[in-house]
Predict the structure.
Amino acid sequence: MNITLITVGKIKEKYLKDAIDEYAKRLSRYCKLDIVELPDEKTPDNASDKEELLIKEKEGRNILSKIKDNAYVVAMDLKGKHITSEEFAGFIDNLGVEGNSNLVFIIGGSLGLSQEVLKRANYKLCFSKMTFPHQLFRVMLLEQVYRGFRIIKGEPYHK
C-alpha cells in the first residue's frame, strides 16, 4: 500500500522530526510512505472571515494539486467520524482488500480544510473533539497508522 500524508505547515521542533522519522522507519515494513509538506499561508492577526476563507481556499488548491486521481482521500476533520484503533485498522485493511492501494491523509493548516478539499475526501476522520497542534498531530496520525498495520498483521502492540 502507498500512503501519502499531505500536511500544511513545517515541522520545526527536532523532537517531533525525530518522532516522525521513527514512525516512518517503522512503517517502511508495511507500506510506502510519502510525506508532502506544504507551506502554510500567513494569517494576519484579526483576519476577517473573508480573509480566512481566501487563505483556506489557497491552501486547499495547493493540497488538491498533490492528490492523484486514483487516490482514496481521508481528510482529518473535526466533523469527521470517530473510530477506535481497531476500527481504523479494519478501515485500512478493507481499503487494501477493495483495491485502494493509494491512500492519502490530509492535515490542514490552522484554519482547517477548504470546502473543495472536504468535497474531494472519500472519508472524514476525527481523532478527538480536542484541538491539537498540527505538528504533534502528524506524529499521532503516523502512530495510529503504524498501530493499525500491527493490528492487521496480528503483531503485538501495547494497548
Observations:
- Residues 2-152 form a domain with the Alpha/beta knot fold (CATH 3.40.1280.10).
- The first helix runs from residue 14 to 27.
- The chain has a mean pLDDT of 94.
